[in-house]
Design goal:
alpha/beta; Rossmann fold; 7-stranded mixed β-sheet; two-stranded antiparallel sheet; 9 helices; globular
């Protein structure tokens, strides 16, 4: 089968950390599954499921160790409520990996359009409209609002899917934009807590092997030298209705920066 690379798969450092945090038994879902690298967490007693909106990436999940794969929007998973033991995810970080160049839109067949390291260039064609790597970024305006609303709805979906006592494990990373630190992770943590999850663990994982990061350091630029992992527990079924939450948290959800 033809392989389609993904620009933001879990590295081994993250997988080693996640393996210690994921329950030893139960159903484990990554609904931002990419090519299914979450399959590296497969062990006796764990059932690993990857959900991914892009078919060409999703089709690689079984080869990467997942027990099952579904092609689905992360905000509309096909699974029953209270059926998952742990949701393990890495949302897009709202950085330039989500770029879609004007040249890519105008001249889709030119090889030079696919040379930049972005979600779209790695996939080789237009992304699904609900893919957060499709030009949704940590900026003001419509693209930023689309990023925040999609992820807020994804965390609401995690609340629906998880059993009481289930874990939501999120890997995220801040980034530097125009010389300023973008506090993307703090926003995700605040949204998850607003929904009603209880934080249990928060870790920083150094990213020493990142070539772009090392190059930027050599150029004297600011870098974010670590990724974060936060573990949350669903402590009850008292998760407010989506419309109520979005209405009462609208400024924080949509206009936060």
């Amino acid at each position: 089968m033809l392989k389609y690379k993904h620009p933001a798969s879990y590295n081994q450092q993250l997988l080693n950390a996640l393996d210690k945090l994921v329950p030893d038994t139960g159903v484990i879902l990554d609904f931002f599954g990419g090519v299914g690298k979450v399959g590296a967490l497969a062990r006796a007693g764990r059932i690993i499921i990857a959900g991914e909106i892009e078919k060409k990436w999703a089709n690689q999940s079984v080869d990467n160790g997942c027990d099952f794969v579904v092609i689905a929007d992360a905000t509309r998973s096909p699974f029953k409520s209270n059926s998952i033991d742990a949701v393990v995810v890495s949302p897009s970080y709202g950085n330039r990996l989500a770029d879609v160049d004007k040249s890519q839109r105008r001249r889709k067949k030119r090889k030079s359009d696919y040379t930049r390291r972005t979600y779209r260039s790695y996939y080789g064609k237009d992304l699904h409209i609900n893919n957060s790597g499709n030009n949704m970024q940590w900026v003001r305006g419509p693209r930023g609002k689309a990023y925040r609303l999609l992820h807020f709805r994804a965390w609401l979906e995690a609340a629906r899917l998880l059993k009481v006592g289930g874990l939501l494990i999120i890997n995220c990373k801040d980034h530097i934009r125009n010389g300023k630190w973008m506090h993307v992770c703090d926003w995700h943590w605040s949204m998850v807590e607003r929904i009603g999850f209880e934080q249990r663990i928060r870790l920083e994982i150094p990213t020493t092997g990142d070539q772009n990061q090392n190059r930027h350091k050599q150029q004297g630029k600011r870098v974010v030298a670590y990724e974060q992992i936060a573990v949350y527990k669903k402590v009850s079924n008292l998760i407010p209705h989506e419309r109520y939450l979005i209405h009462h948290a609208e400024a924080e959800v949509l206009d936060y920066i």
